[in-house]
Amino acid sequence: MRQLTALDQQFLALEDSRNYGHVGSLGILDPSTAPGGSLSLINIQEHISERLPLVPPFRWRLQEVPLNLDYGYWIEDPDFDLEFHVRELALAPPGTDAQLAEQVARIFSRPLDRSRPLWELYLIYGLPRGRVGVMTKIHHAVIDGISGAEILGALLDFSPEGREAPPTLPAPPEAPGQLGMLARGLLGLPRYPLRLLSSVPRALPNVEEVPTIATIPGIKTAGRIVATAERAIGRRRVVGHLNLTPPHTSFNGRVSAHRRFAFGHLSLDDVKAIKNAHGCTVNDVVVSICAGTVRRWLMEHRELPRRPLVAQIPVSVRKEDQLGTFGNRILLMTAPLYSNVKDPVKRLRLTHRALAQMKERHRALPADLLQDANQFIPPALFSRAARLTFSLSASRRAHPAWNLVVSNVPGPQVPLYMAGARLEAQYPISVVTDGMGLNITVMSYLGALDFGIVADREQMPDVWSLIEWLGEALEELRPAARPTRARTAAAAATAPVKAGKRA
């Protein structure tokens, strides 16, 4: 058994009939490299069955503690059914990117069954040139960006031949019943006063960096008083603070139960060339072109705010000894998104400065802030605070905590294979919530930046326009102008693959 953390619990607590806490990805596979030149449902099921010892979360089922006395536990599912989790479907001809994205959005808009391990995988046929899609869907309570990459690493190989099969799994231990879980919860109650006493001195001065706790009445004010006192006596390093108030946009209201998804990619070499020309980082360029793209959308809809948007940027705090432990080890940092700045070069320079300041702020935080925050309040109160955060963000009477998510996940630059089929692209699919109906996540793979954009279906029905505008925002930063556009998978597939770059 393994207990959830407060952040794990938050992704469960936010769920209702419209908000979902799962994430995923859309991989595009070339089955011509697989044995027999094809890829079937049986091939994928056998492949995953063989790799189950390397992916423990695939067999974890949620076991909640009665009365919310403590955070829940992951237990080994004694009735694990692989065929339930691994499924197949086919697109109707001609199998366009728009059809694929629509199908992915519909699958993504369905909640996961909490009576089973919280993941699903879909093999999608009918793509152009015989390609096959693989959509994965797993709850954010189980993984963050780094642990999600670890799961992909267990399922993917460096050659079509694969690797030696790991040892088979032993039978799972018997799971405790409701009385056993109630006993665990009662035994855990006396620990909370002790946890509170040990964690408050470290967590309270930094409470604004943990929004789900900062929403508790009086907590943010108390944190500022303690932080000011620590600075006055020299116990706290002074770091520049960004006083950001997110403006309201049409994608910062109450989300519907349905999603839109769009995907495409940019050349990593093009982004690196711009990075080198302007003396910044790849992440600076990514965040800046996202700002330019969202600016274009806001202008098209006549709602461009005069001040910057505020982006949520997940930052990993996973230590080396925590690799392979899964779960969530992230802080949700805050940075301005300069959609209000017209000049693209000035926008990039401001972004570079703001992200450097965010990194400095992150370095100044206690190494164990996440752990201290986990111990700050009892689970029942934490769940209410998490729900309050999102409900307030969706209200026009209060400012949203963030306007959107922008996340950049580094990935491998060598070809990978699943069940012998070559992975051509890997597009992320992530979370939108009340008050934050737009998520732009990018993963680098094989010389490209693969963008996955998720939006609320009613707030942003024209989400595909963002893919085209990403390329135009990149073009604006190119020192020597030549045509560059973010291309969808189908458009890119018509060109030959060159060494080190995707077509």
Which bin fits the share of residues in helices? 25-40%
Sheet bearing the most strands, described? 6 strands, mixed
Counting copies of identical and different chains, the oligomeric state is single chain
- As for the CATH topology of the largest domain, it is Chloramphenicol Acetyltransferase
Q: What's the average pLDDT? A: 84
Number of beta strands: 15
Rough outline: globular
Percent of residues in β-strands: 15-25%
Overall domain count:
2
Give the topology:
Blueprint: E1 2-3, H1 6-13, E2 22-30, H2 41-51, E3 60-63, E4 73-76, H3 82-85, E5 86-90, H4 97-108, E6 119-125, E7 132-139, H5 145-155, H6 178-188, H7 191-203, H8 211-214, H9 219-232, E8 259-267, H10 268-278, H11 282-300, E9 309-316, E10 330-337, H12 344-364, H13 369-374, H14 379-393, E11 404-409, E12 416-418, E13 421-429, E14 438-445, E15 448-456, H15 464-475, H16 489-492
Parallel strand pairs: 5-6, 9-11, 11-14
Antiparallel strand pairs: 1-4, 2-7, 2-13, 3-4, 6-7, 8-15, 9-10, 12-13, 14-15
Helix pairs in contact: 1-14, 10-11, 11-12, 11-15
How would you characterize this protein structure?
The protein is of the alpha+beta class and 503 residues long. The protein folds into two domains: 2-163, Chloramphenicol acetyltransferase-like domain (Chloramphenicol Acetyltransferase, 2-Layer Sandwich); 259-410 and 435-492, Chloramphenicol Acetyltransferase, CATH 3.30.559.30. Helices cover 35% and strands 20% of the residues. The chain contains 16 helices and 15 strands. The protein has helices at 6-13, 41-51, 82-85, 97-108, 145-155, 178-188, 191-203, 211-214, 219-232, 268-278, 282-300, 344-364, 369-374, 379-393, 464-475, 489-492; strands at residues 2-3, 22-30, 60-63, 73-76, 86-90, 119-125, 132-139, 259-267, 309-316, 330-337, 404-409, 416-418, 421-429, 438-445, 448-456. It has a six-stranded mixed β-sheet with strand order 5-6-7-2-13-12, with helices on both faces. Helix 10 crosses helix 11 and helix 11 (282-300) crosses helix 15. The longest helix has 21 residues, at 344-364.
